[in-house]
Each structure stands twice: as structure tokens, then as C-alpha cells.
Write a structure and sequence with these properties.
Layout: H1 8-14, H2 20-26, H3 36-57, E1 63-70, E2 77-84, H4 94-99, H5 120-132, E3 136-141, E4 148-156, E5 161-170, E6 178-186, H6 196-206, E7 211-215, E8 221-224, H7 247-256, H8 262-269, H9 275-285, H10 298-310, H11 326-337, E9 341-346, E10 350-352, E11 355-365, E12 376-381, E13 384-386, H12 394-401, E14 410-411, E15 417-418, E16 421-429, H13 446-498, H14 503-516, E17 538-540, H15 572-583
Parallel strand pairs: 1-7, 12-16
Antiparallel strand pairs: 1-2, 2-6, 3-4, 3-6, 4-5, 7-8, 9-11, 9-17, 10-11, 11-16, 12-13, 14-15
Length: 615
Amino acid sequence: MASNAPDAQSMAKRQQEISVADFFAKNRHMLGFDNTRKALLTAVKEAVDNSLDACEEARILPRIRVEIRKVEGTEDHYVLSVRDNGPGIMKAQIPRVFGKLLYGSKFHRLRMSRGQQGIGISAAGMYGQITTAKPVQITSRPFKSKPAHYYELRMDLKRNEPVILVDDEVDWGDPGTGTKVEITMKATFFRGRQSVDEYLEQTAIANPHAEFSFLAPDNTERIFPRAAKELPPEPVEIQPHPHGIELGIFTRLLHDSPHRSMGVFLTGSFSRVTSQAASQVCKASGIALSAVPADLHPHEAEKLFHALQKAELPPPRTDCLAPIGVEHLLKGMHKELGAEFYSATTRKPSIYRGNPFQIEVGLAWGGKLESDSVARVIRFANRVPLQYQLSACSSTKAVMDVAWKSYGLQQSKGSLPVGPLVIMVHMASVWVPFTNQAKEAIADYDEIRKEFKLALQDAGRKLGTYLKKKQAAASQAKRRNIFNAYIEEVVRAFQQITKEDGSDLREALLETSRKKTELAEKLEAMKHKEAPEEMEGTLVIGEDGQPLVPGAVVASELPPEIDTDTLPEPSEGDLESLVESTTAAPKAKTHRPEGHHEESSAKAVQASLFGDDEA
């Protein structure tokens, strides 16, 4: 052995504790700061998520402004500014919220929220500090009667502690409360997919109650107005469900419990454990109800744990979730996507590993969407867009599992459908199982994937029904155009033979044409509360870009001149049924509105895709 080889004592001297801030500074790709393009989007996302959470918890309709400015004299340094109208942050909390990793209020709470780990916004500030050596600037006003607090902070990476550089009071410039954070960072600004523009567009879809404005480095401004004035229901914090914890966690809870009896510990520390259930669990494990939790031996704790896992308990409460809801899904998609047809569905809550979750799906078809490309999938978790790792996400795999051909779309085996389609998928949960700390994709649990697929199939059936009705309407509209073109020929021949006016015959033929093709030229509104049951949770957009109302029509008039030589010959059966119907038609003239011209061979017809109007 070499004489200069280190021994155990010398190696022990080099060992030291690793700061969590130092670790993530060297592994910032784990938090979504892989490169300058992705870093800017990640920083915007973390700041906007915090603003939305704060506003909703304070029951304030969010108003958020995002500004990105290029630093003069630099090639790739930008200042990101995000300002909200939330409740503000208390002065003593500001340094730790923005200058310390793993510090927050959401990690230990079992209720739906966007942030979970207490890493995001402080990591964005850390990235800016590493790449530009500039401090984070925070302005916050928690009280309307007082000026705002202003801080400039940097993070001590070795200690994971904030270092205060400036502590001052400033004018907020607004009568309300709120918070503003500014981070100078090395970044790349761009447009298109996975950009700040796309992120804000998708955030506006999933949060129609929020208003966003965005000022880009080129001074172009974009406004995302709110489409709903109602806040989502406030999620309720719940206790962990016994079927969702593991033995090590259970043992720690026993050891740390302040309770002096096992019965109180079981009913007070877990969701859905009643006094009767606690008594049965203790009896099955041979543990006295009066036993002190902290005094249990490890083997007794294990027996109690297994008895608790076998107990028949109700599923966790679901009021800890706040899904977007069908109505707001439709409003959000219509506001941003410009499609012709929308369908949405919200599944009933389900459970994975003892955690409640709920799946929602929205489909947008036609209109301004690209018709010859693969369907666009936009993914959300707790109302937050997921921009990266599309193929690794459970929701994407569920989309490819669905047989979209059954709903009238093109699809190759094991791939996304093709057509003018946007597929929106959303998972709401107290604990979303992300594949990494950057929160870019949802883990592929069987229970989650199954719920995604069922929701996609439900929304797909509505789209399939619409496309079939639309195809039938188009076919009958074509038949009507052919019939109407020949009607004038028949009337002229009738006039030449009988020397009569022929107006009664024209009206009778038009009426027969309408009856024989009653689905033509009409799309009935399909609002989810007033549509037929098979089309609940859908929205159809008229030619003016606005949602149709029940009973409205979309009428496309026949062109005034049609070259009958180029029209296909109607079948013998069609002409025969037309003539037979006409001979039985009443001779009385149909009442015409003032200004009606006899020569007009087309009129708006009030027929429904789903049957005759009831009015």
C-alpha cells in the first residue's frame, strides 16, 4: 500500500454537511433551470403559481402582471417582474420566503394547491444570483393603511439562509395590497411552443377567474381577460388517510404524538377513523385503547399498522379538491382557443395511495385550429400547465390509449390523433405524483391513467356525436341545394305548360325540400345545462365567434346563381318522393314576411341536429 494513501482519520476530516441550497445550485437542472430558454419559463411559472395561490387563499380575484425587460448593454440578461393584487407578505416572512429553499406553508398541508415543496420562487432567485450576481428585489404591502416593505436579498448557499442587503419602506402606488418580485437572470426570450406566451395562455384557460397581462421585451403587450367572476371553491385541509401512509411514517407519527391515548391518536391524526373504527383496530392488534402512542414498542407499532391497513374505512374526503369544473373549462377554452366545438367532463373523485384526486378533460375541435397536424395536448396539474416531458406523462399515455377512430378522428396505432383538435387534461390532487422536482410530468400510476382514459372517452363520445350530426347535416344541405336548383326549372316548365303563376308550386316544393332535409343548415346550441343528455358539457360556436343559445340557427344561404349543368343528377327515388309530397301540399300561399322576394330560393330553416325544436 502506498505510504501517502489517506487513512480513515484523514478522510473523516473532509466529510461535511451539504447545504440543500448548495446541492440544488450544482444540480439546478433538477428544478427546471436546465438552460436559458427553460429557466425563464420556470421562473415565470413559479412566481405566477405563488401569486394565484395567495390570491385564492385570501379570496381575491387574481390580477397578475408579468413584465420581461432586457438589461441594456447585455446580450442575455433579463429582468423578470411579476406583480399581483394578493394579500401581501408579512415583513418578517419575506427574507425566508424568497431567500431560503424548502421554506413554505404548503408542504405539510393535505389540500389542493399549486406549490407543494417550498422550493420554486427561492430557486428562481438563486438561479438569478448565480448567473448575474444580482440580488432579488421584493416589494410587498400586506396593509392598505401602511407603506410597502422593500427588500433586496441574496442567498447564502452554504447555509441556505437569506442575506438582507436592503430593507426599506416604499410607496406601493396602488390603494390595495399585493406583492411584486423582480429577478435579474441569464435567459433567452422566444415565442411559440414552451414559451412564456404559451404558458400564460394555458394558465388563463385553467384559471378563467384570473386576469393576466404580459409585457414582452419588445414592448408588445398581451391581455388575458378573466372569463369568470367566481373564485374556485376553497379547498379544505384534511388529515392523512391511513391507507395512504407507510410503516416508517406511521411509527414516526406515533413517536411524535402529543396524545395520551391510542383512541385519541387514531381519531385525531387520521382521516375517516371513527371511535368505533379505532376500537376495532386496537382490538385486532391487541393494543389497549388507553395505551400511550409514544410508549409503543416497534413490534406493537407494526401490529397496529397492519391492523389499520386491513380496516374497512371510507375513502378520504374530497372537499380538499377544487376542480376547474365543466362550465369554467368550456369558458376558458373558448376564450383562448378559437375552436368550433368544445366538450368537457369532470370525473368523480378517486384515490391513489390514499390520496384523493380528480381528473378533468376538455376537447376543442375545428375553427382556427390546425387541421393537418397531430392533436395538441395541453396538460395541467392543480391548474398549472406542464410544459415539458410530454411523452413521460401519464396523461399523454392515456390519450394514446384511446381509440380516437371511434369518434371520427384519424389515428395511427399507439399515437396521438390527427386533426384540428386540442386535448386538455387536468389532474387535481392534494399531492400530485410528479416524476421530478421540476414538476414536469405526472407519474404513471394505474389508478390515475385509468381515470384519464375514462374522462377522455367521455369527452370523445360527445365530440363523435357532434361530428356525426354535423356530417349528416352537411349531406342533407347538399341534397337541399340540388333540389332547390331544380325547383326553378320545374316551376318554369309548369308556367310554360299551364300559363299559371307557379308561386304556389314554388312554395310547396321549397317546403317539401325543407321537410326532407330538416337537419340542414342548423347547429343547435349545446350548452351543458340545456342540451340533450348525450351532449351535456359541450359548447358550439356560431359564425360570429360567439356561443350559440338554445334554439338559435346558423343558416348559410344558397348562392344566388347555380350552374345546373354541373350539378349531379338526383336519384329517381329522391325526385319521386319530392313530386309525390308536392302534389299533396296545400295550395294556399305561405305567409311571407315583408320584403320577401319570390325569386329567392333559399331561407333560414329552424331545424335541429337533435330533433325538432320544442318551441
